[in-house]
Predict the structure.
Amino acid sequence: MTLADEKYLLFTTFRKTGEAVSTPVWAVPLGEGRVGFYTSSGTGKAKRLAHTSKVRLQPCDSRGRVKPGTEPVDATAVLVTGAELDDIHRKIKAKYGFFTNVTKLLGTIGGIVKRNRMPYADRGVVVTLTD
């Protein structure tokens, strides 16, 4: 089983100070040792990727608890839009189905309640695994 076959991956980015910040994400295979997911341009992970492409991945559950017996994998990541983002959207919809609609609705409601609306899934993240 590859990382892209996992239901959730713990995606770790790094602040300018070097402090690690981890978030569970959905991910899909993109081929050639790459996985992808989408995010909002207003999220912390998108902002942190603006200053470093260094990331780490590890299989986890929906709450970010790492799977026993797994090890983190170092990688690099870049934000994408356009055709690459469209491909990621299509593959995530195929893999996760109806739940993509549920998360979009919950994100909209959360943004209204917190008075902090962010664009939903307007950036793709392409992660290239390093050997």
Q: What stands out?
A: The first helix runs from residue 44 to 49. DSSP finds three helices and seven strands in the chain. The chain has one domain: 3-129. The chain has a mean pLDDT of 88.
